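LAB NOTEBOOK - FOLDING QUEUE
OPERATOR: T.R.
BATCH SIZE: 2
PURPOSE: Compare the predicted structure-token outputs for two unrelated chains run back to back under identical settings.
PRIORITY: normal
REVIEWER: second-year student, initials M.K.

ITEM 1
FIELD SEQUENCE / FIELD STRUCTURE:
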Amino acid sequence: MSLSVLVTAGLVFARMASLIAAMPVISAREIPKHVPILLSGVLALLIAPGIEVLPADAISIGLVVGLAGEILLGAAVGLSVRAIFSAIAMACELASMQMGLAMAAQFNPLQMQQTGPLAILCTWISGGIFLVSGLHLRCLEIVAASFQVVPPGSAGLHEAALQSVFMAVGACISLGAQLAGPLILMAWMINVLVGVLGRLAPRMNVFLSIGMTLSSAVGVVLVMLSLPWMLVSHEAALRDVVATSWRVLSAGV
């Protein structure tokens, strides 16, 4: 086996491995570490035979730059999807703070950080929807097809790929605020009610006796009613960012 074949396969592996390492669910802490590595290796073996082998004169010091470009290109797609995936956890954290559930924080293996129980529940449900809908396969398909547009070794630090990541982060913040909107409005209305009652009965601690109980009870009911809408909106946003990633890659970034 020639050196050119090994280098080409290594570049393919680098792009696929960076995507899998940045994608949600697949790179969760609970997933054994050898699974993403083996998956990247299998995908590289399947994709590399259909890729044109790099010429021998292309293997030089510039190969280091090409390797960095492969890693950045795969990571750009994975991070864009991961940013939107984190929107529902952000929304649930905002909701938990309004409902008084943020104090019961636990470790969330999908987000790799301490989050509230509501965020953990919604994140796991969203992760299941992400897998069932086949969006993880679509991401792998997009990066595999990108080798026909951006051959191994020619990827670089392209402005379009970086811009897609920044846009995904901004969309994550916007989507998280939108998903948490009903609960934020609920908290505002309860605070207004508590403020009015506090003026009517200044000697009674209205916030502790009414405010917290009302926020938690109404919040739980509102979460039960709005959770299907949150999950559908979140899945639609994930589909949009996957489609955007394909448009960026198909244009040759």
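ITEM 2
FIELD SEQUENCE / FIELD STRUCTURE:
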Amino acid sequence: MQKVEPIRTFDQIRLLADSRRMAILRLLMSTPATLTQLGRSMGHSPAWIRHHVQLLEAANLVEIAEVRTTGTVTEKYYRAKAGAFILQEMILPKSKKPALIFSGSHDLALEVAASSLSKFVNLLSLPVGSLDGLVNLRQGLCHISGAHLLDENGEYNTPYIRRLFPDRDMEMVTLANRTQGLMFRTGSPNRIQNISDLTSGIRFVNRNPGSGTRLWFDHELKKMGIPPDAIRGYGQVVKTHSEAAALIANGKADAALGLQAAARQYGLDFIPLFEERYDLILPREQEKSLTPLLDYLQTFNFRSELKILSGYNTAHSGEQIAL
């Protein structure tokens, strides 16, 4: 089975922006070929092909697979260094302060911290949910992630980190404990007290698959024997707690599962259902660049800001979790 390799440098990406070199690489991903064979396939001379193959070889995308000698003729067969390539490269702003990408579960406290630290670090957010955030971190598409994944044994995040990063030196730090529950409009005529009430025909808005909130919700439905299609709006998904709360506030949905802080932000009623631990996950080599954020978690200012948000317990904020 051939392997798939990531393309990580701007030089490689710039090289493949030329459609002719991309065409050569794709032919060599299919089967090894000589310069003459490539020229015949593309309608160009071997000399023209040689120029582009040499550039691909210098960029570590192409290699010599075999050298064949027939009589006085020696031919080199080239091949791509992988069966397929994935383009992935973070394009960051150029400024005096470091720019770092967060990808993971959406959190309002982290947004507050990013705003407070904006003079020292530019923290950019890509909310995709807990699981996809860890996958992005594994693939080098972000510098730090955030998760609230409850394992079947009742442990938060640690089992997932061990499975996804067995060969990496990782660090996990608690941001805070958060309260989640049901959000709905103040004075809503729909009587919502618990998860089972969501089957009464109200318009629900769900979180994206792979998010910690969605995983918890699906687990509860299964435990209660409630089929997903019994909930109107189960397939309507958003990526953040704020998006869900905004839809309710604007009358486009009746209820959602989300953070107490998001409910307060949009003036919604809220019924608490559970408290969870939310952790930040980062490779050890990123610790220095993320020091302003990690240090800020232990300050009085951070704890004061979270009290204003509501629904956050900062008793263990800044604590490192052993992996």
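REVIEWER COMMENT (ITEM 2): Residues 4-87 form a domain with the Arc Repressor Mutant, subunit A fold (CATH 1.10.10.10).
FOLLOW-UP: none requested
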